[in-house]
Queue: 4 jobs
Job 1
Amino acid sequence: MDAQQFLAEFGHIANAPGGVGRLRQMILVLAAAGDLITTSAQTSGIPLLLSIERQKREHKEQKKVVPKQAIISAAQSKAPAHWALCRLGDLTLTITGGGTPSKNNPRYWAGDIPWASVKDLKDQKYLSVTADHISIEGLAESSSNLIPANRVIVCTRMGLGKIAINTVALAINQDLKAFELPAEVNQDFFFILYKTRELKGTGTTVAGIRQDQLLALPAALPPIEEQSRIVAKVDELMSLCDTLEAQQQQRRSLQNNLRQSTLQAVAAATSPHELRATWARLADNFGQLFDAPEDVAGFKGLILDLAVSGQLLNIEHRTTSTGTALLDAIAAARLDWSTKCEGQERKEALGMLKKLRVQTPVAIESELPGHWIWASMLQISQAIVDCDHKTAPYVGEGIHLIRTTDIRNGRMLLGNTRKISEETYLQWAKRLQPTGGDIFFTREAPMGEVAIVPDQEKVCLGQRSMLIRLFHDLFNNQFLIYVIQSPSFQIRMREAAIGMTVKHINVSGVEELLVPVPPKAEQDRIVAIVYQLFRMCDHLADQLSQKQKTAGHLASSAVASITGIAIAPEKEEPVKAPQTEVVAPLRLGTLPAVTDQSPLATLLSRQKGSMNAGDLFQRYGGEIDAFYAQLKLEISHGWIEAPPSDPEAEGFASVRVKEQA
């Protein structure tokens, strides 16, 4: 390694997003290539390999002995000439797999034998405690094996690259392998080698690597004294990385505190003059206060809270009208509508009037401009309806069914919606057919997402959502969107939510949520101001994002120039909605405790312990990747039974994905 080059490029790497992580990986790569230390090359690693081969021939457990691997060429490994070129399997005496006792037999579980799975291999180097234990019967009557202490445990599925040393005897599951290393291989040096090997997993659902592929990975073995020196140098440099990381975290914490105090000063302004002064101070220090695009999200939240509390309006922008007068106008328009409409609409209108007569929303203590007023969601609406259909006979082409997953960040995402037929739509939307300008509000999984129905689009309300229709000439629908998105409203909404595991808000709870009501002209003015400020925020976020990308490219180039390993630039492709369907049946396993974070198992328990994965995904809400991650976690804990194996994923296959026509 060229020390001068390393020092010259250090800043590019360390200060890039994830820079310390890049430094750590670069240290390992340089160590495995022999570039961290100098050597006189008086000895060779070949005698060590010969000794390992002899031990394999004499090993008492011949069935577990790793066979001699194919010869490797110099082109396949970057290493000093005196190192012995080999493969990972040449450094390993034996390899042992594992298995899982039947979860349906309680005698196999809660015994005295620690049983390790992927979830037990965390960031720690040593493995001494496992989440699960099995009995002697469970060990004897399954394919699991008891692994002696001081073996190297690696993942071959659901966690490629994870590695640990067991300090106690334990059993392992089928996703783990145990390596027995000879004295000729320093365990810590083996860690370095393993973490720099290119593990390419295959499989439709869960990436895994076959045992023969794992053992055939290229490696190189230095003399034992060099192994120790390399390990010592890596430990020294990793300690420096720890210090650097702590310093960066401290700097980030100070920056967060400074930004928060500056934002609080803006929010606490008690006069227009003070607000302008604190706002100018904030604008002058953007560069110091905001370091990443996600920092801007908090700023947007502050803007919304200021907007919906009337603090963004100057005195000259305020009107002589009042919020009370606006509520009276809405009430009159609603009464007029109820007398003119017919059929189902008339039924909805009369239902609204009946609800309003008995509604008693709880007042909140929060200052508003004197001519504004608090009102319930029901009071400001022409109509509010909830989704009352349960099953979904989807079709290939048809009308958009808007699920909770199709509403994000104030937008209705129409790229990956399920479709229903015209006949189904007329049945499901018979209470109130959505039109352009209506608002869809999600009340569960996730709760509080909101979007406006686009003009000229025919959509249907999905489960766990509500349709809010306003009198558009009296109330600005975008103002209501901003109110709902504001942090203060989201807090009130969460306080009104019910449920232990999956928080949600019921229909009457949504109707009783309080919103600030300014005159319509002031609503329009506030919407225009927020729009302009959000444009500024988005511009700032784009600048920060571009800054991070540039820093990342510089760091990648620096790492490549030092290590000699070219890093292909990430392709920026447009996001495409996956045309997939979750198809596996799922069943409840061991019932989790109340305190366990197990939303999927909780949902299953409410459905008699069984549900199609697609239906569970719909009830869970959230993104598909988050659903998969949570499902894997709950299966690993045994709260949900693992479905039949997928041969391509070598056994997990809890959720299979199929392409739609």
Job 2
Amino acid sequence: MRNIDELISELTLEEKAGLCSGADFWHTKAVERLGIPDVMVSDGPHGLRTQDLSSQNPNESIQAVCFPAACATACSFDRELLEEMGEALGEECRRAGVSVLLGPAVNIKRSPLCGRNFEYVSEDPYLAGELSAAYINGVQSKNIGTSIKHFATNSQEHRRMTCSSDMSERTLREIYLPAFETAVKKAQPWTVMCCYNRINGVYGSENKHTLTEILRDEWGFEGYVMSDWGAVNDRVEGLAAGLDLEMPSSKGVNDAKIVEAVKSGKLSGSVLDKAVKRILEKVFKYADELPEKMPLDIQGDHEKARRFARESIVLLKNDSGSLPLPERSIEIAFIGEFAENPRIQGGGSSHINTKTTVSALEAAEKISDVHYAKGFDRESGETDPNLLSEATDLASKCDATVIFAGLPDSFESEGYDRRHMKLPDPQNELIEKICDVSDNVIVVLHNGSPVEMPWAERVNAIVELYLCGEAAGEAAVDILFGKANPCGKLAETFPKKLSDTPCYLTYPGNEHAEYSEGVFVGYRYYEKKEQDVLFPFGHGLSYTTFEYSDLTLSCGDITDNDTVTASVTVTNTGSCSGKEVVQLYVADNTGFAKRPVKELKGFEKICLDPGESKTVTFTLNKRSFSYYNEELGDWYAPTGKYTVMAGSSSADIRLSAELKLTATVKLPFVAHENTTFDEFMDYPEGKEALDILLPNVAGGMLGGDNFEIEAIRAMVNGMPLRQIRSFGGITDEQMYAAIESLNKNFGGSKWQIPRK
């Protein structure tokens, strides 16, 4: 067992500062005289983008397996799949000599336009956190670290290195932090990567509130924080705030600043020692258990990639049972360049160098006689009349036409955002023209985030492939021909058009990005606004059908200290085996705070044979019912009624049950003359004060007793006590008695009540 504290005591100040930055683009520094090795980190998250050490180009990477990107695997709603994928990636890291895989990326999908959405998980923080924790546990089970990123609020690429994501503390806590929180508490990633952007004006690399107060002090993070590449603004401020490792190398510039800050007393030497200790703990955790390097199992991992893709593909529409396709009995046309050249991943730091891509056309030709026409040039914005004519002619002669459409590589990448949600015009035109000549049209989409579908009502079926990795073509054919039953569910909402989106008026920001939509992101917004969408969050069809029954709660009356279990039975009522994602949502009916209509609080994926039933059980706790109360500075579940709902999507709720929750936590409250009725009237603690006040209000202020009590309450809801007194409804003594009662019952006896 190494004594790292003793090792740190032997380091010079310059060596300590040096260990807090990279040696080059991909390696930490070594201190040979003390036996401290360097270790290598590598881009991910859906495959290894490991530097080819034989190349002088730091961006030249070795060959690796390209698994489905997070936009796809998130739709699996499958913790076990993500853990298995993590294990496969951990094994590949071991073989490649990589100590830390830079992923997963869990920033919330605030807008469909974010250029990096293809490698982010979801618009929903609960789903993103659960799947990311499983992924991390898988990778780290192989003694390989992960670096969950980008902490936090990195929801746009435009001016990402300087823009400030400005939001309330409630928005930060409810939407943009929980995925990181869940991952830290359930999986303890070895490292956390800070973001480029500012958070409420403070750079993520020097934000003490997020890096220390929340990440370490509240959540108990045990690893080290590294910078995104080039994200450091002020190195000394960053180190003091909790940024341990700067990547890549600053070539000694920032190391010297750290040394000078310690010598001058600007930076405590103990802060530097803590950072070095955190880094060395993980360096030696890897280095002391170096695995034997084995050859990369390209074929074995390719088959895993194919299976992961099958589990993630979403069947969005399937009118008249157009899918699955028969193998031999009909004439089938494959149209679109993506059929022979699939788009399997996004651009930027997660781009994997893979050599084993199999197209859908190649895969289909092994099981069926399909006919092919290119239809369009994927990178062109202009329609080619010859390609269009050839495609429509072929479609008119076939019984079924499968159009492989999608976004070109140039549309989605790290570094810039999309400008719109549209497919290229030639593709939309092609789909419309083929619908004119064929009555059985299936569209297969290759995209990293939602697209508008002006032709959605005209086509028979839509298959959302997302960016499904190197086996995308084979997995698509497996679904199209019924070799596998689709079981993916959308991890994000597909709006009808860009102007429907929650942040349409404020996205992207420039110097400041105003998150004015607050907690109403994704389905939380569309449901609250009663906005029609193209396809809702959690949606996905199957070749079989499922029936829900017997939603039961273990208790119907709880406090915020209790847990409650919800169980629901699901039966496969169709004719083939299939998997269903059972989704559990909670709605706050108390009316105490402005909250979403409902929020995802549980999900489980189950496999059922025809006629088989299974009961799924979920556990709900205080957090399941809470919102972040800024006045309290903590999570708060108001007293009142809640609805627990089980469904197949956010818009397909099958069953619901109610419970009553009683809060044991009291909110900070000091009553005075300007206290309004709505501040206390819904609390049980306010009953005594209401008994003093309300009987007198009708006679005094309203001039009679002909008003219903609820009407009186509605009228005085926003009035301060002094105003009601001035109307003659209550006396001074009655007002002060009510104030004393409120402060006593709310625990406010330490406050002095002013008297005239």
Job 3
Amino acid sequence: MKRNIKTPTSIYAIIAAGFALGAISTATIVSGTGIERAFAGPVATGSTDNVFDAPRLIKSASTESVSELKNLDASFANLAEFAGPAVVDIKAVQSRAQGVNGARIPVSEGEGSGFIFRKDGYIITNDHVVADADKVTVTLRDGREYVGKVTRAKEMDIALIKIDADNLPTLSFSDSSNVRPGEFAMALGAPFGLENSVTVGHISALHRAERIIEDRVYADLIQTDTSINRGNSGGPLINVDGQVIGINTAIFSPTGTSAGIGFAIPSNQAQLIAEMLIKDGKITRAYMGVVPETIKEYRKNDLKIDGGAVLMAVPSDSPAAAGGLKKDDVVVAINGSPVKSSVELRNSMLVNRPGTTVKVDYLRNGQKATASVKLENPPKEPSQPTQRQGRMQLPPGLQLPPGMELPRGFQFFQDETPGAPNLNDPDDSTPVPAVPNDGKPRLGVSAATPTDEIRKQFDIPSGTQGAVVASIVPGSLAARVGIQTGDIITQVGSVSIKDSAGLVKAISNLKKGQTETVTFQRYRGNTRSSTTVTVTF
């Protein structure tokens, strides 16, 4: 049941009061005369003793303005009081080891947050909060504890926990498509295990697209300056109406604590996944076989459309190609439902089932057209063999440019098939040469021109040109800017990279200390991210 929340009667009056107080404070600093302190400090009285006066209001701040500020203050407190009972603390324990008596011993314990969205005991959180846990314990605001049953959507980083309880306080989902930068936001959860914590901030930005965090792909995130730390994961980000606009998921921070840049999965995405998990117990995704990217603003204006998803790659063996779609087509609708972004195109693969035929409306060279595409089951990911660490050798088909070495500590997948060559020899202690410090600009990667085998290994679509990263020197420029093995470098400065030799040439033409941009792409299954970083060589 939704409770009434007190809100200020006039946001304009609040803003006006803020400007008035700011102007008064500035005047006090500049002139030092004519305005009394808001709160009196030590005041000389003619003796050596200091006397503290009682707090005094600034004379020029009207009673009405102060009242509005108090209303705003009370509104945030009411908001926290309303939302708090639906927020839960989650402890996930892995107990894989066994003691001398055969009892399972806890070997790992994680903590996060979540919130109740159905009064019959359904809780939503991040999948990474409960991943691979043997036991998940949920603690309610009133202190009750329950062991929960987990249903996961690993790829989406969403999980459901069902507890055996009823008539629980809940939070409702808001329509995250209506969220705007600058709006107030409140995060609730248990940062560093500090339960029932509340922080307030704003929405900083929307559609932070295709970020890859710990090997999970996030196609669309809300950015907020609301303080989020470890333990906030899975908790709600709410608006001033007490509705959930996002699931607090990650932070960008060089220190591991809040730096004012946090990310949340939008509520529309989370609600869609939650409803599918409740209904089917799993996520069923159809496969069209495209790499979409949200259309740029200038192209929307040129094409006179309000959104769309540009197909950056359409493999020749995909269902999309069989239906007649091509690279650079702009998809605007699927089965009559508008597609305004790459996220909406991906979500349509959740709504439509494998084996069904969908009508795809698109633009090609500005002309409208329609294609019929029969969706398929996603291709199975190849199983990954066991890893062994040692001195590195190149697997078949991977060629390094001249002068580039494999660093120690890089691992290749070792084929465990009897008789297969051992690519990683743990008994060979021959040192691997370090990257020479000869004053030349170096990115710190070993790269290769993509072959069919390499494309298959790293899910790189056919026709994609660039230099595939085979290894990364620890502590190098590449490592510091987040380049990973399997990424494909496509541009350095204004130079397009078509192969490994092109990357070597582009970097060799730079000067030590020169600053340039480096663009690299990353493919994971049906998703693609493109990142441009600025590097000083």
Job 4
Amino acid sequence: MFILKGAWNVPSATVASTSEFVVMWGQRSKSDTMLFLKNLPRFVFFTGKGGVGKTSIACATSVKLARAGKKVLLVSTDPASNVGQVFGQDIGNTITAINSVPNLDALEIDPQQAAQAYRNKIIGPARGVLAPDVVANMEEQLSGACTTEIAAFDEFTELLVDSELTSAYDHIVFDTAPTGHTIRLLQLPGAWSGFLESGKGDASCLGPLAGLDKQRSQYGSAVASLSDPTRTRLVLVSRPQRSSLKEVERTFNELAAIGFLNQYLVINGSLPHEAGAHDDLAIAILDREKAALNTMPDVLRSLPRDVVEMKPYNIVGINALYDLLEKNVTLPKSMDPVPPPSITAPELSTLVDEIARDGKGLIMLMGKGGVGKTTIAAAVAVELAHRGHTVHLTTSDPAAHLQETLGGAMENLDVSRIDPREETERYKQHIMRSKGYRLDDAGKALLEEDLRSPCTEEIAVFHAFSRVIREANRQFVVMDTAPTGHTLLLLDTTGAYHRDVSRQMGQSGMHFTTPMMQLQDQLHTKVLIVTLAETTPVLEAASLQEDLRRAGIEPWAWVINNSIAAAKPSSPFLTLRAHNELPEIKKVSQSLAHRYAVVPLLKVEPVGLAQLLAIASPGVTSGE
């Protein structure tokens, strides 16, 4: 049930266009050009923790450059790209002109489409030439996650080398996937270049009949482009929050270690100081932001830095994107306050009540980066453990900080992390023990060489994921997943494994259960989609739900996190943002979710066992 009290008697300005908002709030004089835009090289990458606003900043940059007369290509490397949603048109895996912005084209690198095109390119010439069983074997070799990664990566590197495809563009702007996925993408040119230079690339990994000389040359050129500060700039985007800044520090160090030194910092979504007048919630947010910036890691202080303030409206539409970097809005002191909305919606504790009745199972938290999956996963796990259940809390997100979120140990609760490097080393050792012990020295050397392939990591992470799924047969396992795109790739690997096992076992008549079958069984797995009450996060969550349904996985519930409306602010600025949430909450409750809960934006940062218990325990008080 979702009840709005007086929600639709909101002043018209709360649903006005961006231009009307600017008139309503007044304008500051235009600020100087953002530092990261000065002397901008041809290639610019935006990266950072999920949900920090990379897409908005990348799109705004592209619009600004295009309006200045530059020919721009905006590229999304995020498997869960929403660039098309931002511009209100379909883009996809081909370069597409943005209708509303002359001089701007866009491209969304879709891993699945890229993989299919790659398979067609490799297998097509063999059809009708080679024996059917040979072609079938080639198709099998090209069905896994390795092919998906290679195919998407080939498209990415092609944009970094001189070619007819990109020669017309003054700037190529990359809106990247959340940090962990992006670091891997930027590491791959060197990884694959080195792998090929060894001369021992495994054809089953790169694809039969693939021209290795082309890959070697293209990957080497990509390395040169990425490491040249006159050609490439990396912009680290962060929220003014401790966790976000720590993630940016990790990103800076990892990218600097592989030669990417031309880095800039953008602090996005900073609450305007005027918003804090006479509002305890706003004052608490401002204090948290100030403390986070005052304790910013030293390596970040040395970077050129820009601040983009939060707006009282959603960043939707071309004018809003242009204004994001061109001007800030402020509150006129004479503004009459807008009454806060009043909503009644289920709390997170109602979902935990249902989960607890099963006594065991896998609880997977999924969604766009930055929506608070780690916090909600920790809150659910802590509450289940508090009720006496044995709980294993784990994460597949390279950027997650579960231990910091928990702030301590708790009875009945074990915590772990699927670390790609550790899992890769464990997988290599397992293969060498199980397959290498019978080989002679030459055979072992070849096997070790094959295991150095960058694809090995994807396989290793899948094996770790499968172990977690099996563990939920006897206890609760709460899993904080990586942001949407990375998780969908993991599920793709799970689906490929399921199809392979089904093909091999189906004719034998033997009973079998695959990880995908367990994910599809709601008695074993409950998927909770976490989102924010904002246009883009809800659209992305709805898209994720459709992707899951196509895989036969039905989401069990939605969680709307950090709701300003549920926190009942008094600040005119926050009140306007609260009213803008209401249509999105209504959409989730009435159209998208079987069941749902709303978690308010809290005055106290949700870190530590006590705060986490308050989120998921019955009777939590909004805004405390």
